Amino acid sequence: MNCTFRCMNFLAHAYLSFEHPQILVGNMISDFVKGAAKDRYANDVRQGIMLHRNIDEYTDNHPATKNAKEIFRPYYRLYSGAIIDILYDHFLANDAELFTEASLKIFTRSVYTALEDQSAHLPERFVPVLAYMSAEDWLFHYRYTSGMQKSLRGLIRRAAYLSESDTAYQLFLDNYNALEGYYHEFFPDVKQFAKQRFNELLG
């Protein structure tokens, strides 16, 4: 999917960059870099772009994701995958094995700082996104259902054929426990996959 659909599930891609600054840049900007344009970037940034694309493909094909999509598919069809991407970030932000509220805050600030320090590698279209992301601390606010409501509204605003996000938000609330279960089925697998690809890409 291109950035019209995706580009709001930033927390997982930041976390799955394994604290490597240029991999982080590539992982975060991938949806803003089309096709062969990735070859213009420094090697480690390019590997981060590839890692992002590998993670997206793995996520789409994971059985837990396919099951989670079915909750939203009758109402949002092809957009159901993008909705699940966003909601996975909520459950990641609340994963007690990975973050406390305090450590999530530290992590999110470190992500913004690392991206700002690597600003020479950022596509022009990503620069204002980063400014808003940092100023409003999007990554931290994924922790809250209100943050998810705002993210879902943002997704629908960018969607060509959808006009409302209230149904998606209510489905999220009504199916919260099931969706959290799908996240816990999925995330250890994608973390293992991403770490393996990270090691392969850095050779």
Question: How would you sum up this structure, described in words?
Answer:
One of its GO terms (molecular function) is [acyl-carrier-protein] phosphodiesterase activity. Pfam families: ACP_PD (PF04336). With 203 residues, the chain is mainly α. It has one domain (10-196). The chain contains eleven helices and no strands. The protein is globular, with a radius of gyration of 16 Å. The two termini are 27 Å apart. Mean pLDDT is 92; it is low at 1-7.
List the helices and strands and how they pair.
Blueprint: H1 10-15, H2 21-29, H3 43-61, H4 63-76, H5 80-93, H6 101-117, H7 126-136, H8 138-141, H9 145-158, H10 166-174, H11 176-202
Helix pairs in contact: 2-3, 3-11, 4-5, 4-11, 5-9, 5-11, 9-10
Keywords: Hydrolase, Lipid biosynthesis, Lipid metabolism
Pfam family, one: ACP_PD
Organism: Flavisolibacter ginsengisoli DSM 18119
In short:
This is Acyl carrier protein phosphodiesterase. With 203 residues, this protein is mainly alpha-helical.
Largest sheet: none
How far apart lie the N and C ends? 27 Å
Number of strands: 0
Low-pLDDT runs: 1-7
Task: Kindly state the percentage of residues in helix.
Answer: over 70%
Mean pLDDT: 92
Q: Helical element count?
A: 11
Radius of gyration: 16 Å
Strand content: under 5%
